[in-house]
Amino acid sequence: MESSIMSVANGFNLKCTKAKVFRDKFGYVCATTKGSVRIQRPRAAYRIPQSNAYNALNAAISGILFQHEVKECLHDNGFAIDRFLISSQDVPYFRVDDDIYVACFAHSGSNITFTDSDAFLGVIAHVARMHHVLYKSNIGAAHPKKVKAGDDAAKSLAGLTLLRKKLLKAGKFSEFDMLFLRSYEKLAAHVVTIEDSNTRYICHNLLKEENIYIHDGEIILTNFNEAAPMHYLYDLAYVVKRYIKAMPKDIIPLNKILTTYIANCPNIEFDDALFRRILLYPDKFIKISNDYYSKKRSFAPNTYISRIGECLRTGETLAKL
Q1: Which domains does the chain have, with CATH numbers?
Q2: Is pLDDT at 108 greater than 90 in this prediction?
Q3: Could you tell me what percent of the chain has a pLDDT over 90?
Q4: Residue 236 has pLDDT above 90, yes or no
Q5: How far is CA 207 from CA 24, 32, 125, 180, 193, in A?
């Protein structure tokens, strides 16, 4: 157990003993007189101008304050959210020297299962309402921003474009090279960039099953570590990709998913063509390819072949929806 966890619990005005503390994949869960509380060190999700401890700490604190503002906005509009507890320092975190911690109540509900199509449509409606509320909010634009995913991918893809030219010129391909070239032709065209004017939306960015609970029919969103001003289509595409990955038996037609979203987020002008490009955005393909070729491998491990093959199959499946 982290040696300071008990003092951190006290810093959040919580009473618990070591015997009532256990660790899960997110942090430390404490059984307290106020209920079950999870304490964790937040992961920095924002770009830091300079690589030093001072800037890292300030970036992490800015991220927490931003998440807190987002959560409070949603809570005020009737959403069930894992809100941050306020510490004895009167902020939504507790600072011990150069370490910071956050705490929130651990939910007792069960995780959403995306193989349940009705439940998934409920999630889509919930996400749409979340986007609608956050779009109308006055959350400050001065908070830290994530680099736009499309811009990041475009830079990474530039290196892969040069690599593709070298491979074609060499004319000798390994099994992985063949999969890379085939995937490149199908997926690279879907890298997109979106103007800053479109980042008035605030996205969750981690809308996967383990971050969405249901309790007595109510949907509860958790884990806002990656929340940031971004285009809403990235958030929507992320959750749809997770749904496809869950491999439901009777898949919902994409048009029905989009109709549900649009009906619950009336303040948008939905760009269907742009959404389909972002849905096919090859993030994993770029990451896996860069990782493989940066290691200058002379052979293709089965794990890399299966991963790049899955990227291609997923892209083909999504293109048919």
Answers
A1: 5-106 (3.30.200.20), 117-150+171-320 (3.90.1200)
A2: no
A3: 31
A4: yes
A5: 20, 29, 13, 28, 21
